[in-house]
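Protein in question filed below.

…
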Amino acid sequence: MYLFLAFLAVPLIEIALFIQVGGAIGLWPTLGIVILTAMLGTWLVRSQGLMALQNLRRSFSHLQDPTRPLADGAMILIAGALLLTPGFFTDAVGFALLMPPVREIVYNYLRARISVQRFEMGPGHPRARPARDDVIDGSFEEVDAERPKSDRPSGWTKGGPQEH
């Protein structure tokens, strides 16, 4: 229901703002402002996005929780979409999401309402390996890779499809 209201309210707000601003300053200055905010927003999203990507890489390299950099990146991405959408209301929300204090408030709001059940490192990290005594790390090397494979069992196993 909230999504329906948002899809209904945002265009109505944008139309009302276009009429009000266009009536006050005229058509061409209104269109100029829309184009200028799209260009400025694109530049800001790019620079903020690069910083967010660096923060994400830093959190991965220092094995820290990447939640905050990921949330910042998502909010910057949403800000970019809003800034490229023509309108004054969407531009205001987009520019607000580009400000770190506003992102902090949104992040804390969402963090209080979302519960993370578990966070794990990937399989390549030493902390992610199971702490079991019956696990043996190993590697293999294929010997004689040029030789054609036969349909006969290798001799290492019993049973198999063509037991003689």
